[in-house]
Amino acid sequence: MHEMAITIALVDVLNEEIERAGGGRLVDVVLTVGGLGALEPGALSACFETVVEGTALEGARLSVRRLPIRIHCRGCRADGICDEHFRCLDCGGTDLVVLGSEPMRVESMTMTK
Ligand SMILES: [Zn+2]
C-alpha cells in the first residue's frame, strides 16, 4: 500500500526532527504533497493514525495539503495550474504539459515540551 509506505517514511522523519529539537510531544503536523501523486489525503491521515498508535507520536494530528500542479496548456498556450480533473483552469482544455510538481514535504510541526 502506497500510503502506508509513505507514512512510515514520514514517521521516521518526524522522529528525527523531534530528536533534533531535543525531544517533546508532537501535537500537529502539516504535510504538503504534490498534486500529481496518487496520494489520498484522507488515506494518508488514516495510515498515520494507525502507524503512530502506541508510539510517542500518538495523538498528533496530521493535516495534508495538496499543492497545485503547474502546467502548460497546448490549447490556449497559457502557463498556469490545472484543476483536480487535470484540466486547464483558463480554457478547460486537457492537452496539458506538466511543468512541475513539488514532492511531499513537512510544512510545519507543532510540539510541546
Ligand atoms: Zn488552456
Protein architecture, described:
With about 110 residues, the protein is an alpha+beta fold. It has a domain at about 1-70 and about 100-110: hypothetical protein PF0899 fold. Helix content is about 25%, strand content about 35%. It has helices at about 1-20, 40-50; strands at about 25-35, 60-65, 70-75, 80, 95-100, 105-110. It has a three-stranded mixed beta sheet with strand order 2-1-6, covered by helices on one side. A hairpin with a 5-residue loop joins strand 3 (about 70-75) and strand 4 (about 80). Helix 1 (about 1-20) crosses helix 2. The two termini are about 35 Å apart. The mean pLDDT is about 90. Zinc ion binds next to loops.
Short description:
With 113 residues, this protein is of the alpha+beta class. Helices cover 27% and strands 33% of the residues.
Q: What is the number of strand segments?
A: 6
Strand order of the largest sheet: 2-1-6
List low-confidence stretches. none
CATH architecture field of the domain at 2-68 and 102-112: 2-Layer Sandwich
Largest sheet, if any?
Answer: 3 strands, mixed
Helix content: 25-40%
Broad shape:
elongated
Structural class: alpha+beta
What key phrases describe this protein's structure?
single chain, 113 residues, alpha+beta, hypothetical protein PF0899 fold, three-stranded mixed beta sheet, three-stranded antiparallel beta sheet, 6 strands, elongated, binds zinc ion
